[in-house]
Amino acid sequence: MKNWQKKVLAVVLAIALIITGFATSTFVDNSSSKVGKETTVSKTKDNKSDVAKVDTVSIKDTKTEKSKEPNVSDKKSDVNNKIGDPDNKIDYQKIIHETKDEDYRKSVKLAKGSFVVVRKENKNTTPIQEEQWYKDAKATGNEVIMEDTVKDDNAKEVKQVSYKITTEEKDIWSIVDNTNSQNTVEIAEPVYKYFTSEESVPSAEDNKGMDKQWYLKDQKLESVWGNEDYGNTAGEGTVVAVIDTGVDYNHEDLQDNIWTNSAEVSGTTGADDDNNGYVDDVHGINLIDPNETPMDDHGHGTHVSGIIAMENNNVGGVGIAYKSKIMPIKAGGSDGTFYSSDIAKGIEYAYKNGADVINMSFGSSAHSALIENALQDAFGSCVLVAAAGNESTPTADCPLGGRNMYPASYSYVIGVMAYDEANSFASFSNWDYKPNANAEYEVVAPGVSVYSTLPNGRYASWNGTSMAAPMVSAEAAILRSSLKDKSTYSSRYIMGQLVGATEDTITYCNEDVKRTYNYKKLSLTASLTNKPKPNITVDEIYAFDSEDISKSNNGDGIIQPGETIDLAIGLRNQWGAAKNVTITVNTTTNGMDNQYVEFISDNEVAIDEIGSFGTQNNGFIYNDSKTVIGVEHPIRVKIKENAPNDLNIKININYRAKNGLDEKDGTVYTQLEDTAYTIHIVKGTILSGKITENTTLTSDNYYIVKNSLLIPKGVTVNVEPGAKIQFWASDQYSVYGDNYIAYISVEGNMYFNGTESQPIDLFPGKDYEAYRVQVEKSGNGTVDMNYVNITNPYIDISSGSHLNCTQDYDEVYYREMRNGEISTESDSSFVKGNYIEKSKMSNLRNKSYFNGFRDVDGRYNTVLFDNCNVRYSSEGYTNSTFLINMSKFDNHNSISVMKISGDSYYIQECTAVSKIRKLNGKKYVVYEINNSYFGGEDHISSMNSYFATNKALVKNGGHIGTVGKSEESTKLLMSLYKDVREENSGELKLINGFYYDKDTKEIKSLGETEIKGSGPSQYNPIGGYIVSTTDYYEGNIDFSYRSNNYLAEYPEDVDDETILNPNMDPTYVGITENTKFKNNAILNRLTCTDTSQWMKVIAGTDNKMLYMATDNYWGTTDENLIQKQLVDFDTNTNYADIITSPYLDKPSEETYPCVSDIYITDKNGDKVDTVGNGTYDVHVLFNRDMDQETDPMVSYGPDDPYTDYTLKGQWNSSREWVGKMPIKVLINQGHQYFRVKDAAAADDHWLTTGTDWGRFEFDVTASGAEALTLQSEGRVGSIYLNWTQDEYDTMAGFNIYRSETGEEGSFKKINSSILSSEEKEYEDKKVEAGKKYYYYFTVVDTAMSESRPSNITSNTAVDDKPPVIKHTALKSITNGVGATITATVKDNIGVEGVTLFYRMEGEDNFKSVPMNNTTGNYYNAHINAEDITVGNLQYYIEATDGINYAYNGSATEPNVIPVESKAFVSSVKADNGEVGKSMTGIVKGVNFNESDRVVIDDKEVDTEYVSAKELKFTFKPEYMGKKKVELTENQVVVASIDDAFDVTDSNVKVYNEDTIITKELAKSQNSYLKTNFNGKINSLEVTLKDGGKYFSSSLSYISGNSSGNTYKYKFNNQSINGGKLGYFEYYNESTEVRPEVISVKINGVEVENLDYDSDRISFIEQSEYVPVNDIKVKKSSVTLDIGDSFTPNVTVSPANATYHDYVDYSYDSSVLKQNDDGSFTAIQSGWTSVSVNCDGVSTSINVQVNELPVKEITSEQNKYSGTVGNIVTIKLQAKPIESIATINWSYNDSVKLVQSTDNGRTCVFELAKPGSTTVTAYYNNVKCEIPIEIFKDEAYVEFGQDIVTMYPDETYLVDAQIRNDTSNEKRSLQWTSSNTAVAEVNSDGTITAKGNGYAVISASLEKSSQKASIIVLVNSSATSYELGDVNMDGKVTAVDAMLALKLALLDNPTDAILGSADVNGDGKITAVDAMRILQYATGEITQFK
């Protein structure tokens, strides 16, 4: 449902009505399956069937007291049985709310200069001209359209008058909104335009006759007309009002069937004789021009009328109801446009003047209260029929988008769709997404090639639902002619017969929604004969959780566990009448009741009767706004307390009913399928008040900010990915209302941590959709957002990335406290962030530009502002796209502007205030310079301006001057003094070229002169001459009293004009740069010539400044158009200047994704901007690489919303999308605009393009020529063409054109000279076999002009080139895992299919599977694990182009891959462990064996073999981290899985120590992060609170990187024993930066004991710093044995050094460990240097730890043996055991060393060659020799027999033996079945027979190609097969003979098998039987006996 439709304010659950089946017919509880067969037709005395009338005459439209009054909801049930009742009111407020939607206003068309007002009047009512709204509208006149009598709120009758008001104002919506805001009117609305619904308008045809009226036979009209069985009627005595473009009432086929107003025929000309308000309305009325007759000046109305009532006069065709009368009502003009005011008048005229049926073949998506009022009044006496429309559009309830067409969508109007002669749904017809549910369109009628009348005696066949609607109207007239008593047979009854009586359907399959529909097909015979029966569907469902239902309820509209809900259910009846109606409800799914639901009430409730096309419910309770707020007779259910969150509970709804029109009908009617209603259960958490502790908001909960929420200082709230936070919630049932103000204020920290796949959603709650979502940081609070969707944002955050901010309404509401009262106000959205990137801002709207606030503030990078109407800040925008940010929007007093955010500079004013004077060959002058380039007065900006001023003077040829201390210099300065100081009084301060360089701490000169006296200093760095009347001295310029007089010096050759007028412009000088506003795309809709509609970039109002806006793209390279997008000095001289040049000629690649260009090419590839009939390519270009898996939505149209036609296409490259655009000039001629949206960036799918509409345009114009006919034929080596074309006088000949790239490709002429007019064939021999070519020809006349192209034909020369397959075979496959086979396949014309054929070696038949085309030429197919056993996989690949075939491998010579029984780990299941505590886990996978061992942390752990698919392990972790689990076989790693589980260590501590940092010290100082972690480290992750410092690792790392404030390092299994993890470096720091570490992860696991205090870092000034001069140690080298300790004796000098006590050590922690007392202990042999450091001074101690030598080596076993391929693991013992010295090995090629661990103490060898060998382990002179005996593998598998026969469900254990096995490993058998449907086998060889057939059971020996097989034949005695068909495959072959021969050796075959194999009938199976079967199979014999 669109956001502009009125949303029910009752507490409705998860508004998702899931209809699992659409009931298009009913079924009965007794026997019959078709309703039609149950119909009883009463008989007349002559035994002829009468028309289907009810058996009694007392039945009336059901009018109940439920009073769900008709309103404007799209749901048709909103109009109940009381249509036409004056007490029945339209909900005007609902319509007003609906029409405020922006999409609605874009979709409807309005009449200019008028609007409609409906108001109630009595004698005291103020005259309309005196009303304030009338004056505000500047009304120029008014006209009464309709008058009616209604009841006011006190039930008193008053007059209701509808006026049409004329005005000169153009903004009709503003007038309507203003009028509706006043209390003196019921409703104001525009005058809507409606349009006819014909699909195409071809030229009129001359031929006439019924043979063209296919629809007459379709509707079986000839069997109805004049047939007494059907009432002997053709609509006689009925009047059909045709509200249309008029009717040609003089047409010879219509003139006698035109309605005549008898009172006017005999009346006075020029008078209203019958007082009906219209003068001389003899044949109807003309509402376009009341002075004219309703003559048709368009043709549409005449065509519609002919379908209904063409006369039966043998002139042309014949109307369906040819005895009815047509009442012409002209409400449509010659252009086919209708206005709502005229339509309403026409409806009123029709029903007041006796019409029985009103036909309306027009429509619009506009929802007019004026028309609805008139239709309701007409419904009491008229059947209402309207066309559904021709846009191929679904109804508004379609989730993919749609819209309803009015008046067809009203429930009391029959909406008509169209089908064609082939009973196919018309491609152009609008369609109903939920037939019977909302019942917008009820029936399908003929609407294609409908032959009928046209003005001036013509006829034509037209298409459209406009033609289908009169089919229904005509048949309604026929029914009314037979059923004249309207008090008995109401309009509803007629509607029911037309819609409900038919059983025929038209099938429509829609690919977009993937649904197939069966719509009711119009059937006159069914309507006339089938008696009415109930046809009820569930129409409305509401659920309530108010507090008065249960104390457990909270009434918040969110169904939660423990709540009790009331179900309110409404039914709708499409046919007949229903009584004894009972609604039934259950929660059963697949026969089981929902365990979370308890029925509190009965699960069924009886309701009142329901009339035809009526509705009824179980007692809806309404409020004054006609909103359902409760139910009187609920079905009450309780949601149990244990119901989980996000649970969907399906409630199945049905009914029982009896026929209310037939007492004899005992059938109980019910719905064919239950209607499913889904309740969504939410375990919601209310957030309000103050959060007092750190909190995480998770995705498995639902949060509601109902009132204000504070996150105080010191508290952190983390929001997980996928979390949903709702703002605002109401207490619907509180009599006091609610006073909540929902927002979040953050004084602490709030982190929104969404992801692309799981963004966080912030949104307003139900009934608060227009309220803002407010999240603001307060004080020093932090709000960081990542991947967050925000609706109606009002946010002030620290940072944001990947945000999606959308405003859903023009104004956003909020509440505030004023004087103790809650006030609700409207405002704008607001987005502010210190830094926001990669985000989208859509449809942000400001309320008023003059409210003094900015809507968008902060710094933005790579952000899209899509169709916004806001004010932008001046903080800075880079790489951003401003897409059609409309300057004005509707009636809002607002504009879309940006105060320029670029870098700004002042323009220095430079005036020469002295004469030019010379000295020593140079010129001198004094300048008075006002304005600093950079604006500031502090040291830095002043020095910057000083140097910039000098740079400007240098640019002009000079520089800031200096003079020496000489008499001439004095005279010069005195002269300049007099030039400046005319009064000769006071000092003159001249800024000179001397300045103080703070880096070198020296005084420097811009000139050549050296300073003689005092001058610039550190605190006053600019030098100056202080000149008096008598002398001068060198000094400096005090910034507290700075001078603006500069001494300038020039070479003598610089001309005086340059000196007197230097160019000081900053852009000329070259000091400008642009850092704040660049690489943006400002994409105004430049096609709109009203520049006031463009977003403007505005400069400040200081014309002495300029702003930099260079390097941006402005949507054009036209400098004039760029300037029009600015407001600056060029616009108004009071403003600063904006510098845009150089600008970009296209959007930057770094800019947020946008459309850079759109252009059109014709079939020749030429660019065009005007198109005619044909198909064109539309090229959409983007500024950066886009995701080619995501198609943009590309459409075009002449006006809003530019989606009239949607293009389909594909990506030509990552930056170009090409769509096909077929043009039908008659449909879309004129000016058109493109619309593009929703393309996604390739590198970031969050970055999708906005709605780019109206920027690119083109024209459609009519063009074309006579059709030409071309045919083609593919031949070997050529393509033959021939054609037909009539010659004409000026024909010269023909040209042939060819394309090689398709119909839309580039065509080139292929005939070298013009073909003569006699030549009608051509053979193209320049072709490639198998390649498709496209051709057309043109006719060339004697003037050498060419006709348009003929039809395009295509063909292909015979192809003899097969595809080419490239494939690399896998080396091996692991049994139990499956295999993927890949190949590349190419073909010259295209690959049609690729197939993989495979089998296990020994199997008879190959299986096949198609290979899928993944990308490009790549294909793959997967073979499932169950199809693979140990052994050899055989396969081959077949490819075809549709003609030729190619192979890789073949059935006889397939590719072969060995299938090995290797271990494979799929998962590890283990709880997280803790260091020092034993834990267990499970390893899952395949092919495990008992020798497999689990290895963790490079150590083998206790392993238990459970099965070949499962191992258990026990593990005691030694150090923390994410653990890698490895699986070894004989010490060789065969499989592994990373990050299997976590191990924590609560004893591990990460900390920092007291550190002193000296500020501004030019040497490195470090603050260290330390740990007591002891173990191997592979990764380190440190996260800081902010990015004030960079964290560096102290350990040697493989790689390191940082992301945000997180630093990650990877190490190579490095052993550490506590010590430094890393450091923060300080160098020459002037500020006190204390980084805060908030998280540390070692080996991927977070350290629980983080003792980091940033306050431990203290700072001192440099003046307090005493450096360390020297550091000494007592011993510079130490030699230790393992276990020995030593203590460094360190002396630091001087004793008062600042860092005297901060001595630091660096060493190899694998050799030494440092103790708590500062001593070191040797833990492993080796060498290390202990570096002793203090304040940058260091020394070292060399430490040698002696190796403990090996003195003895022994082996666990004296001798080893095994078979070739086995693994042997040899473990040694070395003494002493404390030694870690490395042991070496020697061996020959009989073995291969696989792995050596534990310093050589464990070695794994693979046995390679049979025989005896010796391997030797040695250390120096100590050695150990180990002999190994290696055997050849001669093992094989042997079965006790090779065939067995079985009955189904029997079992048989195979006698399997492994022979000659010399392996040192226990080997298993892998069992497989070739056909598991026949027989299965388990791991121990037990066969289970499953079903009839033949299977081969095989056992493969592990690690061997040996296997054995047994044949299994299964046959039940109950199944018989052909004699001799032993394997039961349906045929007798040589295989059966072979099986019979094997069976001859079997003692006791089953009887069933014996019966099929004993072909000679001797009671046993012998070789004779086998021979006979073979003879029969080969045809040698034809029978066995």
Q: How many H/I helical runs?
A: 21
Separation, N- and C-terminal Cα atoms: 78 Å
Structural class: mainly beta
What integer value in Å does the Rg equal?
Answer: 47 Å
Spans of at least 5 consecutive residues with low confidence? 1-88, 199-207, 731-737, 849-853, 888-894, 1262-1267
Main beta-sheet strand count, sense and barrel state: 9 strands, mixed
The strand order across the widest sheet is 70-69-72-75-74-73-76-77-71
Please describe the topology of this protein.
Blueprint: E1 26-28, H1 92-99, H2 102-107, E2 110-121, H3 132-136, E3 139-151, E4 157-167, H4 172-180, E5 187-196, E6 198-200, H5 214-218, E7 239-244, H6 262-265, E8 285-286, H7 300-309, E9 325-330, E10 337-339, H8 340-352, E11 357-360, E12 362-363, H9 369-379, E13 383-387, E14 414-419, E15 443-446, E16 450-454, E17 458-464, H10 465-482, H11 491-500, E18 505-510, E19 515-520, H12 524-529, E20 536-544, E21 564-573, E22 578-586, E23 588-589, E24 592-593, E25 597-599, E26 604-607, E27 615-617, E28 620-622, E29 628-631, E30 635-639, E31 647-659, E32 669-671, E33 675-681, E34 684-690, E35 695-697, E36 702-711, E37 716-719, E38 724-727, E39 744-746, E40 749-753, E41 760-764, E42 773-777, E43 782-791, E44 793-806, E45 812-818, E46 821-827, E47 830-842, E48 856-866, E49 871-872, E50 877-878, E51 881-883, E52 897-899, E53 904-906, E54 909-912, E55 917-919, E56 922-930, H13 939-955, E57 959-960, H14 967-980, E58 988-997, E59 1002-1005, E60 1022-1027, E61 1032-1036, E62 1045-1051, H15 1056-1060, H16 1066-1069, E63 1077-1078, E64 1081-1083, ...
Parallel strand pairs: 7-9, 7-11, 8-9, 11-13, 13-14, 14-15, 34-36, 35-37, 36-38, 36-39, 37-40, 38-41, 39-42, 40-43, 41-43, 42-44, 43-44, 44-47, 47-48, 48-50, 48-51, 49-52, 50-63, 51-64, 52-65, 65-67, 66-68, 71-77, 87-95, 97-104, 105-113, 106-114, 116-123, 125-131, 133-140
Antiparallel strand pairs: 1-32, 2-4, 2-5, 3-4, 5-10, 5-12, 6-17, 16-17, 18-19, 20-21, 21-27, 21-30, 22-26, 22-31, 23-24, 25-30, 28-29, 31-33, 45-46, 53-66, 54-56, 55-56, 56-62, 57-62, 58-59, 58-60, 60-61, 69-70, 69-72, 72-75, 73-74, 73-76, 74-75, 76-77, 78-79, 79-83, 80-81, 80-82, 80-84, 84-85, ...
